[in-house]
Amino acid sequence: MSYLNGFTNGNAVFADGIEDNGNVVRIGRREDNNLYLKGDIAEILLLRGAVSDTERQATDNYLARKYGILTPTAGAPVLNSQPTNILGYVGFSASFAVAVSSNGASPKTFQWFQTPNTLLSGQTNSILTLSNLTLGQDSTSYYLAVSNVDGSIQSSNATLSVLPVTAPFFTVQPQPQSAYIHQSVTFSATALGSPQLSYQWNFNGTPIVGATTNTLTVANISTANAGNFTLTVTDNLGSTNSNPAALTVLVPATNTYPAAVMSANPLLYYQFSDVNSTTNTTNYGSLGTACTGQYQGTYSGVAGPVPPTFPAFDPANLAFDNETLSAGGVAFPSITLNNTNGGPHFTMAAWAYKDFGQTPFCGIIYERDSSPCGFGVNTSGGSDQFIYTWNGGQFGFNSALLVPNSQWCFFAVVIEPTKATLYLQDGTSMRTATNNVTHAVHPVWGAGYVGWDTFAATRRWFGTIDEPMIFDRALSASDINALYAGTAVTPTSTATLSISGTNGNLTITWPRGAGTLQRAAGVTGPYVDMMGITSPYNFTADTTNHYYRLRVQ
Q: Does domain 86-163 have CATH number 2.70.98.40?
């Protein structure tokens, strides 16, 4: 078989090719009549035996790319997606769909089949629509076959389940939830009935504005959100209500150190009260279980800051103790920060204690998963100096904040677009150092460790750490002093709502954790919490007037 420009050109016999008697192979000339090829020959490939179609196609494609003069075969069809199992209802229609790549030779032929191999007449495109469904079609499977001149491919099977038209009923009820203040919870339920089902979530019997899907996320929860949530599902034959699902809002005891920290709404906050009882440490910050920490290596729980020196702490307060330089640390996952607008606004803080001098550049809170950021100490002139890193730089900043031995110290770093402020309370006074340079945006706080800069095994904090915390905003000096003293941090008193969009498609944004979006029909209210809404909130404008504000917490 011979080919021209990648396509079959009929049969050809090459009688004067390679001979066993040692004759010379001639290229571009026939030996018997001295006829010569008038043109150029670029590349010759001589093989012993016939090549497969796959090998020929690979050679054609190589030559086509190299010289741009051959037309390679385009190949068999490729599927970009598979059909998925679907539910249908008696008397209604249902559709399967398969995405087919534009690659592969054209034209392509489509044909749907019912398993095992029944051809469906007229179903010859990438979408199969079945109309006027009956119960006899229940649990029937279908697949698509696509072919072209270079081959064919068959999709996986997808099953159609046909249900009778009924009033709605629940197959999965929403479940009770509990979480700490400022965290988020999600309720979900599954219902069946006749199409189209509509949904409405209710809080203590009152419909929640905008909560019209089968899932509901309540963000930045407060004690005002404690109560019962239900879902009402409606179709053309009736409606039904789910069982109530209670939300329990957990609040730390008043006048305690955890209450002080959580009043500032951290993203991440580990108390380490569980250090001797589990391998995971609870995140009491607003990101909840998404930022659960993991104890690693050789460690133990020892006494942390306690009364009477630190009266806000529990007398039984525990801290994380790194026992060796070669192992130990608390791993935390990555965090997406909300500081891309106008530069970084970020705070990280922790308590730490050391018996003696540290190794160079040891980390207290540190991440190298993205661009290195964190803080710790570095040995300088025989003393341990408080240092920090932001986007891989600033570790050489001379803070002149020396960390004493045998003393619980409170460390904090506040990052703003044009400066970083370091705070060190060493038991005598709150000392500060300011680095007045530009600090670029750091959109993702990567996975890292409490007690370790992973650049080297020896960059571990050899000592004790307690109460690490990360905030998605720049805390003020009074906030830092409050965190040290264990008194409530004054919540943000103002926040800005921003609205943008075109052609009626609008977006409202506000700082994460700043509060709960509310809506009213008039400018004077009454305003109702939009409990299932988080920033950014995307919606389509209609002819009704709506007024929005943020309930700051």
A: no
